[in-house]
Amino acid sequence: MKKNIYLNMINKILYITLIMLLSSCSETSDQFGGYNDPRAFDGISISNPVGIQLPVDSEQYFEGNMSLLFGNGLPKIFIIGYYDCPMLCNSIRDNVFSEIRKTNLKLGIDYEILMFSIDPEEDSQKAVLDRNSYFDRYFGDSYEDKYKKYINFMVAGSKEIEVITKTLGFEYRYDSELDQYFHPSFIYIVSDRGVVSSGFQIGSVSDIIEPEIDKARKNIASMDFDQFYTFTCMQKDIQNRNPKKAFELLQVSGLWFLSSVGFCFLHRYLSKKESRG
To answer: How far is CA 257 from CA 18, 51, 171, in A?
Structure first.
């Protein structure tokens, strides 16, 4: 009789624990993964861009027309993001600029840098200020101001942004609640003809930038993009949902573990009590 009472008590405790865990997981699910939100990676992906022709005749407001930035014989390092990004955009740009300064490549002689904003609300004044800041920080000590023209921070309207990003297969989304853009972090290397030759991600990449720039100069488009997929999990149509999946797995495994521990302790307690009786 007493044993049945204790077993019923165990069932009630486990049931209450289950309810509390599920409630807790539901309340904290938005605090896990990505930018404190497992949904941060929804709708973010990239397609293999190697060999894609950029629409270099697209209008944009910094120089008046993107075609003006092509035809000078220089390969381009093409960065997509936005200037008021509160997350990793600045870190990505800092990484690119610092890594390329470690190489023997010369700005305006071997390459130039293009930064393209996906925020249609940003204006050319903001772009110029950011461009000048990056030039002063990374090139001001050894380059004259005339070399600023080889670092172009661009802004564009919604239509032009859509053309560029869709052409590249660069999928991002705008979160109206946070007033932020969530997007992949991939740096494109583009030939002077506007053809994507390769690309890279952030990190210690100074040793690969120089040969990739050389390939772009020779109009050679090649890259092991499948390896990039494996590392970043951002392949098109296979969106990066790893943080969400990890949290769901954590919910199940945590619930199972705590329930098992609780059952073991209660079973041991009841067994001892029964043996004493």
So the answer is: 11, 50, 38
- What SS3 state is found at 132? helix
The residue ranking higher by pLDDT, 62 or 76, is 76
Per-residue exposure over 78-110, b if at least 16 CB sit within 10 Å of its own CB, e if not: bbbbbbebebebeebbebbbebbeebebebbeb
Dig out the tokens for 42 from the structure.
């929804």
pLDDT tens digits, residue range 211-245?
Answer: 999 999 999 988 877 766 544 545 554 444 444 55
178: Cα separation from own chain's centroid: 16
pTM: 0.70
Helix (H) or strand (E) holding 77: strand 76-81
- Selection from 108, 51, 34 nearest residue 77 by Cα: 108
- Eight-state DSSP code of residue 187: E
Structural domains in the chain, CATH included, are 2-33+241-276 (no CATH), 43-232 (3.40.30.10)
Q: What torsion do the CA atoms of 128, 134, 137, 141 make, to the nearest 10 degrees? A: -80
Q: What are phi and psi of 76, to 5 degrees?
A: -115, 140
